[in-house]
Fold these 2 entries.
Entry 1:
Amino acid sequence: MEFRHLGRSGLMVSEISYGNWITHGSQVEEDAATACVRAALETGITTFDTADVYANTKAEEVLGRALRGERREGLEIFTKVYWPTGPGRNDRGLSRKHIMESINGSLRRLQTDYVDLYQAHRYDHSTPLEETMEAFADVVHSGKAHYIGVSEWTASEIRQAHRLARELRVPLVSNQPQYSILWRVIETEVIPTSEELGLGQIVWSPMAQGALSGKYLPGQPPPAGSRATDEKSGASFIAKFLTDDVLTRVQQLKPLAEQAGLTMPQLAIAWVLQNPNVSSAIIGASRPEQVHDNVKAAGVQLDAGLLKAIDDIFDPIVERDAAKTQSPPQRP
Ligand SMILES: NC(=O)c1ccc[n+]([C@@H]2O[C@H](COP(=O)([O-])OP(=O)(O)OC[C@H]3O[C@@H](n4cnc5c(N)ncnc54)[C@H](OP(=O)(O)O)[C@@H]3O)[C@@H](O)[C@H]2O)c1
């Protein structure tokens, strides 16, 4: 495993981190979830990402149980707040009330006294940013989180939050956006702003949820047990990537990956890590073998010819529109 600084902070994170959206507490049984966490630890992953909302709070519980007994100082545990965790109108968003209640719930479920990074899972247009940032500052100053971050915030939202964070003396160190060969919307605005202000990206769905793994074939039904067959939740999220056009182009990556001595999942993950503003790529996995395969993307350098060949294949279909970074106009 290789390690990078999280933005300009002193915190080191594993280049590849493990996240449990869709899988823990939902798609996979607890044994498989625990086996994936064990595989992550065995292969040198120290950074784990979850959220209060995943599997209606069950994902944090599963991760807390799977990490029990590990040396806490050897781990970086990240969670998030914003999406609904209960039926009430205050069980969501970034009000002071919900942030204070949600961090306590997350710590209880994760069985830890603090998280290393507490992230705003989206921008809350119904709460003054000052209120949100003051609540985050209090979470940090009370020792319940070491650093704060945001997720899917625009460049201008990041800039405003950064100004307040400095005033409140609280370390805003990261953004968590979607980023992959197919989804490059952060490149024109979010990344330059983050570089200027010292935030690093912790990128999600680097493999486009499995679409870049090569296992989904154009015109064929998805393989049994894959996310695309998980009607409870996964299938609806991955659907946008499973068009014949995307999947035909993905198959063109196969010879390029082979030539580079990589599997297709490794190529997809290594691709996001070529960007120096990316601090970590968060991988998901439904089976431990996937973790063992994917972590080999750490430390891989892709040459300019290969990057150009990838651009040539995907250029007509890559999503680059900065306006695709957005939070719901109203609280969900
Ligand atoms: N901040 C946000 O709004 C946000 C949103 C989404 C995700 N995230 C974070 O990002 C993490 C990762 O997201 P993701 O799960 O979509 O990431 P991903 O790495 O793009 O996709 C992971 C999925 O791809 C399949 N896969 C993984 N390795 C494979 C391999 N070697 N061969 C074939 N298939 C493989 C598995 O699904 P199957 O085996 O089931 O097909 C796995 O669950 C989440 O857990 C969460 O922590 C954050």
Entry 2:
Amino acid sequence: MEIHAQLATATKIFCSCAVETGGEPNSNTCPVCLGLPGALPVLNRRVIDLGARAALALGLEIQETSIFARKNYFYPDLPKGYQISQYDKPFSANGQLTILTAERDDHGHALEWKPMTIQITRMHLEEDAGKNVHEGLPDVDKYSYIDLNRAGTPLGEIVTEPDFRTSWQAYDYVNHVRRVLQWVGASDADMEKGNLRCEANVSVRKVGETTFNNKIELKNLNSVRFMQKAIEFEIDRQITAHEAGEPVNQETRLWDEKNNRTRVMRSKEDAHDYRYFPEPDLQPLVVTAEFVESVRSQMPELPDTMRERFIAVYGLGFSDASQLVSDIDLAEYFEKTARITANPKLSANWVLGELTREFNNSGKSVCESLLTAEDLAELINTVESGSINNNQAKEVLVEMFATGKTAPEVIKEKGFEQVSDSGAIEKIVDEVIAANQANVDAYRGGNEKLFGFFVGQVMKASQGKANPKVVNDILKEKL
Ligand SMILES: [Zn+2]
């Protein structure tokens, strides 16, 4: 697997042009990222900070010295004729990453989650190229348009060893990488926006064979799911070809979403000779051990560690803990709620149940939520105290989420406030007892099951507002 992750800097890797999407074409450019003769690149320090975060989150060793190199090739979106990348001395190498992976049934449900260790060969730093535009402009049948706003955007290219054996392993790996990069703030890692792109190299061989057959490279995979489907298709296609004695050519293929198949993009028979050589305009990059330690000390707890802690400390199940750590903001929200309520399991139920439903319905992220963890905790405590029931609380939560009001405010507005005043409840109890003398006699004669009947009558008479605990106490005393 190869993943290109755009590092979340404000400016480009070798100049101070802004990195932003949706700007006027070619507006964020300067002599450096346009590759004009004589312009000199200057390394953006922030790229090293975020690159170090990404490397540490992926279990990579940051190399003391790395070298930027020119990768020479011509393409219209690369006007200077070379890309500044890294070659034989990458920024980081020798990574080991343990992911959780599972095969899926026909409905896509995970069967059994198991840990799997992936060897990450390297993550090097490089600049992105510009974009050729073939849509939405005049005479696109005659012309190609070039937008160089993306030229010089910083990327980390993450390359693994050929460790994957199924499409779902690749799927779980890319999702893991996406999540940790977002988690540590190294990349937005959004495939739809193109700031995380992945390529899969696929080949098949018979059980027991030790060498790899010709591989094909899958490109332009716009989502992790498409990637998984494309790999699955390729596995079948290649097995069929091998069994029929047909050659599997080394080539690049694209995923054709409409027809659910891969198709040839270009043949790889004459591989590029990029003629790499060290970039003469940049010094070797030297990173000190102190720098690496300072980055490490500022990193948040990683999702896997956090999941294990949620299981061990809060007694949550694997599934709940995994869902909570799917997003760092959600995990922190849960933890804040659980600390206030001192009831982690119940807090997890509310966060993953009612609250997550509101997030999904509204399309809001955790950060945009008007309902704070403190307010949710107050609501949960109100239910626990018996002041309102579960169904009322769900209704209250919807209103709190929509308006940002607190639980007491919404409870008051909706008239859910329970009557705990024992004088008022006592009056109702007296009325119920007086009106049901036959049942009172039967209860006193030993039919204890009738107790529930009396509770029901009192709750009904109070229109559901009487505090059940107070009702119980008073009824027991009076009966
Ligand atoms: Zn620039």
